[in-house]
Amino acid sequence: MDPCPFVRLTVGNLALKIPVASKPARSVVHPSSSPCFCKVRLKNFPLQTAVVPFIPPENQFPDGHVQTVAATFHLSKSDIERLAGKYIFAGKLTVKISIYTGRRGTTCGVSSGKLLGKVSVPLDLAGAASRACTVFHNGWISVGKEAKSSSAQFHLNVKAEPDPRFVFQFDGEPECSPQVFLIQGNIRQPVFTCKFSFRNTGDRAQRSRSMQSESGSSRSWLSSFGSERERPGKERKGWSITVHDLSGSPVAAASMVTPFVASPGSDRVSRSNPGSWLILRPGEGTWKPWGRLEAWRERGGSDDLGYRFELVVPDTGAAGIVLAESTISSHKGGKFLIDLGSGSNGRGTSGCGSSPGCSPRSSGDYGFGLWPYCAYRGFVMSARVDGESKSQSKPSVEVSVQHVTCTEDAAVFVALAAAVDLSLDACRLFSQRLRKELCQPYDSIA
């Protein structure tokens, strides 16, 4: 399999020094009481925000301070070519950072925060996909309107690193048992086939027994990771999708282990009672649990699909290691992302290497190196899925080359992407009817 070139542009190591005023004034920012944040912009990419920590004026950076990544932009070869084309006659491409004092958010429709200053860092991304690491800026910049000797000082690091990825695309809806192609430029090479099916009670019992014997204990994996409850009323259950290689051997699977059930008195799957999938990979003649995906329908105006994905820690009583937790627009679709180096869900590093970490909420929750899957770091995978507004969905999947050492490694991310796409259907309001491929013959509710 041949990967596609990608570049990972990161903005990090943020810090702010503000000189202490000799006389009290209303315009003075007091670090102890006034938080700061910044907005990071790159042309044609979504705006990103991050907290900017204060440090005492006498301190140097980064001595004694945690190195963090505040914003991350993932650029494909076509993204770089498009940006280079736009700026060939209009000056250099730049990443722009606006620094604000005050808290993030809005009050009565008006954005909070007072603009302290703006910073622009020129970028030259030509050849960045083939160089080990390109640092565009690392150090302090004066910001604000005061004299240079008394202005605020803003520290940042802007760098680009190659991040090659395998790109896969489904040739149709996962429930239609499509082929999956490896994309390399204009070349589409078939690498997997998917088989969607409904799991019956006998299948559940057999799978439960095989998991139980593999763990060597009386605990059933299915009872551990989800309830096989048979509830009267509105529910969607028993969906399963198996990924096969071109020889026909099963190399990954996603199995719905907790039915998607409408909350009492409503037509939606709630966050307090989500449905869930077990993502499986083959090993030693049986399926081994690899990850668990929970999904639900958010309340409020957004009405988004909420999700949480965690790695399974086998043979321990510890909770799973959460790698992703966010939302996707139910109507428009969006991107499911596992990135342990971004500011929103991971730790960063000051160097040009990948970011360490197992969990976006706390990389040290379970101890680094607790089990082999803690090797996941930096960008891991993303899956783009279409929402309810599209009549046909063809999910696409990007997987970092550093996390693929065999066919099963790639297949398990394809199975996860299929589960995310199917969760959009499983979390549809129960007042809406599903397409026929998702309805069992005896199912008169969905």
Automatic annotation (TrEMBL):
What the entry lists under Pfam families is as follows: DUF1005
Composition-biased stretches, type Low complexity, lie in 208-226
Fetch the InterPro entries from UniProt: DUF1005
For bias type Basic and acidic residues, the affected ranges are: 227-238
Which stretches of sequence are listed as region Disordered? 203-239
Which PANTHER family does UniProt cross-reference here?
OS07G0133500 PROTEIN, OS08G0163500 PROTEIN
What is the name of this protein? Answer: DUF1005 domain-containing protein
**Which organism encodes this protein?**
Carpinus fangiana
